[in-house]
Design brief:
238 residues, 0% strand
């Protein structure tokens, strides 16, 4: 009896997520340090006042959310439709979810800054409205993923929707040039040279670097979670 039971293979243990993430901790410390520099060691803008300091969070979050995350979503979605690699699908999903967080920061900090500069929380400016629309499209992308049970069908439909959603980013980039609105034109990536004093430009660079570290840490953590989730599902199905 014992020989028969010993011949039966035991189920492999399900993978467990790791605990403390040192990279994420370093990224969060870097973001806090950048915010401290912006608040206490960067001069107040003469025209916009103290509210201008939101700039050092708003701009990096916008660049990462729209260009980094949506760019990665676009590339991974296109590549998945071509080679059907499930790792690309997981990376696209991770980029979309992290991008949703960063674009959410943009949509929260923007109205706070607008209230101080324009006297109103919200205007239906072309760039602001299209950014909100992009956020809703990414949200719909994630809702679609949660509503389709078939892994292959979900990945294929998500890749198509992710590609279409990311195509809105070039339009958002051009809205300041194409439409008259209240949103300012490019300050850092100006055609001639940046329109910021060196100390403010330095603070923005530090903030951009720290938020990029946070983006990489969150993307790495989210991708690892997606990998563990799929491994668990495969083991439970077997």
């Amino acid at each position: 009896m014992s020989s028969v039971s010993s011949a039966v293979p035991r189920p492999a243990a399900l993978p467990e997520p790791k605990g403390f993430d040192a990279f994420l901790a370093i990224a969060m410390v870097a973001v806090i340090a950048a915010c401290v520099r912006a608040l206490f060691f960067t001069p107040i803008d003469a025209m916009l006042g103290a509210a201008q300091k939101i700039f050092y969070v708003h701009v990096p979050a916008a660049i990462i959310g729209m260009y980094f995350c949506c760019g990665l979503l676009f590339i991974c979605s296109i590549m998945y439709l071509w080679i059907k690699d499930e790792r690309l699908d997981r990376l696209a999903e991770s980029a979309a979810e992290v991008g949703l967080v960063f674009m959410g920061i943009v949509l929260v900090t923007g109205p706070v800054w607008a209230r101080s500069s324009w006297g109103t929380w919200w205007v239906w400016d072309a760039r602001i409205t299209s950014t909100l629309f992009l956020w809703l499209l990414v949200m719909a992308y994630l809702v679609l993923r949660s509503g389709v049970e078939s892994i292959e069908l979900r990945a294929r439909l998500s890749a198509v929707m992710g590609t279409l959603a990311a195509l809105l980013v070039p339009f958002i980039h051009l809205t300041v040039k194409l439409f008259r609105g209240m949103h300012p034109e490019a300050i850092v990536l100006a055609p001639v040279k940046p329109k910021l004093p060196p100390v403010m430009l330095m603070t923005l660079g530090i903030a951009m670097l720290s938020f990029t570290l946070l983006f990489l840490a969150l993307l790495r953590l989210r991708y690892r979670w997606a990998t563990l989730r799929d491994a668990r599902a495969a083991m439970e199905a077997a």
